[in-house]
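Example complex used in Figure S2.
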Amino acid sequence: MEDVAAVAGVSRGTISRALNGGRNVSPTAMAAIRKAIAQTGYVVNPHARSLVTQRSQTIAFILSEPQERLFEDPNFNILLHGCTQALAAHDLMLVMAIAGSAADRDRVGRYVNGGHVDGALLVSTHSGNPIIDELRGIPIVACGTPLGHERELAYVAADDRGGARQMTRYLRERGRTVVATITGPPDTPGGVQRLAGWRDVLGADASDRLVAIGDYTRDGGDAALNRLLASAPELDAVFVASDLMAAGTLAALRRAGRRVPEDVAVGGFDDSPVATSVQPALTTIRQPLLRISTEMVRLLRDLIDGQPPARVVLPTELIRRDSA
Amino acid sequence: MEDVAAVAGVSRGTISRALNGGRNVSPTAMAAIRKAIAQTGYVVNPHARSLVTQRSQTIAFILSEPQERLFEDPNFNILLHGCTQALAAHDLMLVMAIAGSAADRDRVGRYVNGGHVDGALLVSTHSGNPIIDELRGIPIVACGTPLGHERELAYVAADDRGGARQMTRYLRERGRTVVATITGPPDTPGGVQRLAGWRDVLGADASDRLVAIGDYTRDGGDAALNRLLASAPELDAVFVASDLMAAGTLAALRRAGRRVPEDVAVGGFDDSPVATSVQPALTTIRQPLLRISTEMVRLLRDLIDGQPPARVVLPTELIRRDSA
DNA sequence: CTGAAAGCGCTTACAG
DNA sequence: CTGAAAGCGCTTACAG
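Predicted assembly (648 residues):
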């Protein structure tokens, strides 16, 4: 910077002003500085800048899943990609923070609280998320309803309940009479709300026999369907709370000799890449993940700018394919 | 830090020494400092530290794919996860950098050259990668052979050619006589080397009729198989250079009324999650992605420590499932 | 083993 | 519009 100042014939203070918005810099000085920067190949030292501004221009993307399962979830990719791009548009960088184990949480907590980042995007499905309590004073936006923290935390979520209603209604409209469901884990917002949406539509027909609890994995979906086949063998439709589980369901139905959709209609949730990779392709509920990403970033920036935490719930969309 | 010094009754210099390895700090001082830190809740300011050490303790994970296709590739997840964890083990953080467009490359180049990171992990399949030239003087380790930069760059790769040989040999040993292949793009190491491995085994039988060029996408695999069906309708086996393409191949074969593996055996490459999600499950070549991740991090740390660039090639493994 | 001091490279009131 | 100066919070020879 000293060199640039010398070449441009101005003081370092003026260089700094030119670099930061150009307020109070004469056109002449501006031009000289520009030329001097090009000539010297100068780049600002981010640490020196951060030291005084107290801003790092980076955001933590915290993955707080005990099993680190999110890494197998195709939704995660879209979210990560979306957030990275949305942040980049504002010249913010994303740093990955995996907080699976207690030790990880500790490390991530120290990192985040240590002033490395200006805020955090929190991605986790389970409630009672222990990392939240370790993050003190830093702006946070959660992805999905943060069960148990709805009040304090900003978050962006898809309309899980509404989406579940859409799908269940669709299955009934197609003439299905016994619509079972495979849920997500009961300690996840999707697990709770997608089940609630199903109940909304079935009303008095929502018997417990028709409910199997899944775990958002393919194998879990497979196993859950087998349980349903035992408790409600007459079922002719299943609303499965995630596409990945629905893929397992499809396999289980095949083994059981039930055709999809002829014998059993299967409706998924997510519209993740697996939806089109399985056979038959899944009729499902699309979560607007890209939109969720950009909204998360918007909310986080607002938070950093001192605005109060906000919540955004985004509508879902029914995608018709072959499984129902 | 001033506060801690006051509470512990020592100078800031001593605190700093205690924080950085504890060299030349008496046990008494050490204990007092520890207590003072706990009492005050002190955390070091990373920017101040980086300003003097010239180290940021963070590494860029650069995704340099024109189409940003890597985000749809399940291999990518494993790699990202593996790298994040391997870095975490050394208290290094990973920052995502997407360099798809020219504008992105510019941004990432400025970021990386600006001293934000201590090194970079470069993930990209295509050669002639323009970002490489923008990264000056910073330690880099590439994932996969960086075509055109093999000499200067450190990299970690799976043994593509050897793996292709394994698979082709396997198909022949199973009694298949006309083994076609669907390749990756010719400007990617996998595209080149997996084809070479196939040629190694087929020798004089490696007719161009049996080769279709793919693009590592599902649809590309589908289309490529259709071309093979036209140029070599008698084929009874296909070695497909990626599992994702193999998934497309399976779909195309189904439409063509050819049974897998009875009529046509299909061998994939990667052992990515799709391999087990398709029907029939893919016989494939496993790339040791986790191992690749840890090796990349090891090499990068060595590089940062001033050692010369090294190359590591890791063996692959044949995974037998149902498609061949 | 310890403290005083210089210095890392910026930004930002402040006075002009 | 501009420059001189203070200060951001650390680390690291240096002298003791």
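Chain B has three domains: 2-44, 58-159+289-315, 160-286. Chain B touches chain A through 47 residues (CB under 8 Å).
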